[in-house]
Amino acid sequence: MTAGERIAELGLTLPTVAKPIGSYQPAVVLGDLAYTSGQLPMVDGQLAATGKLGAEVSLEDAAAAARSAALNAVAAVADVAGGVDNIQRIVKVTAFVAGTSDFDAQPKVANGASDLLGEIFGADGVHARSAVGVSSLPLNSCVEVEIIAQITTS
């Protein structure tokens, strides 16, 4: 089953790649690797969750937001790769999690992104990962996700 077929089977649709809010590109390619800029959990033009973990945002809502951000990252890679089925493997995920100073469950939030990538890409979705706690993120987002993916080049 292709990644595109898995996305459809999961009842998902790749979103339109968000327009940059600064001087950057959503994704760039170097050789057979695509690197995304940080992707926020935008759903239909709105942030899925705002605020900090340990205060306004629950772990469950943040993990769901990380899942949305990862789907946006997949869309950004698919855009520069010529389609989602040209993504061979997910190499690395970095999840930035905005939380209070005592919040320490960043990996549980990042699992939302990692689990989605596994659902879409199977064994090729297993990746290296960093989950980093930060004091704030753009637009008061609770999470931001970057991925590095190996792509098919022609």
* Radius of gyration from the alpha-carbon trace, in angstroms: 14 Å
Low-confidence stretches: none
What percent of residues adopt helix (DSSP H or I)?
A: 25-40%
Q: What's the overall average pLDDT, rounded?
A: 96
What is the topology, as strand order, of the major beta sheet? 1-2-7-5-6
Strand content: 25-35%
CATH class: Alpha Beta
Query: Could you name the CATH homologous superfamily?
Result: RutC-like
Q: Count structural domains.
A: 1
Distance between the termini: 22 Å
Number of helices: 3
Largest sheet: 5 strands, mixed
Structure description:
By secondary structure, the protein is an alpha+beta fold. The chain has one domain (3-151): 60s Ribosomal Protein L30, Chain: A (2-Layer Sandwich). 30% of the residues lie in helices and 26% in strands. The protein has a 5-stranded mixed beta sheet, covered by helices on one side. Strands 3-4 form a two-stranded antiparallel sheet. The protein is globular.
Task: Put the structure in a nutshell.
This protein is an alpha+beta fold and 154 residues long.
Protein traits:
60s Ribosomal Protein L30, Chain: A; 30% helix; 3 helices; two-stranded antiparallel ribbon; 5-stranded mixed sheet; globular; 154 residues
Helices and strands, with pairings:
Layout: H1 3-9, E1 27-30, E2 33-36, E3 42-43, E4 46-47, H2 59-81, E5 87-98, H3 106-121, E6 128-134, E7 143-151
